[in-house]
Fold this protein.
Amino acid sequence: MTKDFFTALKDRRSYYGISKEQVISDQRIQEIVEEAVKYTPTSFNSQTSRAVVLLGEHHDKLWNITEDILREVVGNEEQFKSTAEKMNGFRSGYGTVLFFEDNNVVAGLQQ
């Protein structure tokens, strides 16, 4: 059983079928993310998780800014090609959810 589990972990891959198509309402996306953040376990039950939901032009703006910054960091356009492909893949989605964990609160609880 353990060998099968580890094999499954090693063989796991993510396959993305990302598109700009809206399949559920923006309000429903917001509700799902709020429930996920509210009921996901946290260290010491600190409830320090936060999320930002970016849809439409805000989603595109995030990935445009990210690409611009990474392009400057890499500097070489040839080396940047694979990163640009990733950015285009992320940008091609309907939205982005950014999850944050406030480690200062967790660290304060541990002291």
